[in-house]
């Protein structure tokens, strides 16, 4: 389990060697850093981003647990911010996967580059991350940049992640564990960027302490009323829709553009790929409650009790 094949800063290497490690059920190595299980391959990018990322007040950061609606949020925020730059029938979203338009700090921006030049990117810059709130670069917390967080019912998140990892096989030579064993690890919080409860609580508390800094969203709420959610997101990031735009039905148009059915049907998302990841794997079912097709009532009961216990007193519920 090497941190990376390239030369690493000696102090990152030293720090890394002190961390507990576990294999995720798909075979990828995770290391436990400040209470969170980070994929080993993005440990160095995380530390590099903490050291070098220089946030601007105008930056927008999309944060999430994997498989919680990140792709959807990327499409929505990109469209909201760029609505005066591209018409709906000319938007890059029609020919690029949302992950190519808004990139991850730890998987893209700082991957293989400890100190990339981000100065030339025009404002507002948009980035995304799966990092927990506690690991975000300090300049993000100190600046006025906004953070939009999305999470999802943990049972659906678990099932969605399971499909995604089985389909993409990020650890080619590993034999994935059976669903029961994977579920066991999930309940212990040992999964990429887990424990899920601490991930959610970190952003939840931040949104309560500073509602102008962190917007806390749930996938299920977007599913229930996307126009309401898109309006709220636009307001929060400082790109409110005008009365005129509302009358013209622009919010509905953007919501339709970013809908699951529309994005899934695009050539780029049917046949394209980003490295080893198939774009189609970002668009599986897009439903609430699909976990019932895979997990027993007993498993659900166990997670529900766990969630109740972990979220008790926070005001956060699922
Ligand atoms: P399912 O596997 O349950 O279908 P992420 O974007 O964080 O990787 O999460 C992926 C999940 O969001 C997948 O869930 C995927 O189908 C769903 N999804 C992707 N785009 C969506 C969209 N535009 N609307 C609703 N759900 C979407």
TrEMBL record:
Record domain Sulfotransferase: where: 57-315
Keywords: Transferase
EC number: 2.8.2.-
InterPro entries documented for this protein: P-loop_NTPase (IPR027417), Sulfotransferase_dom (IPR000863)
UniProt GO MF annotations: sulfotransferase activity
Pfam families according to UniProt: Sulfotransfer_1
Domain of life: Eukaryota
Protein family according to the UniProt entry: Belongs to the sulfotransferase 1 family.
UniProt name for this protein: Sulfotransferase
Organism expressing this protein natively: Fraxinus pennsylvanica
Source taxonomy: Eukaryota, Viridiplantae, Streptophyta, Embryophyta, Tracheophyta
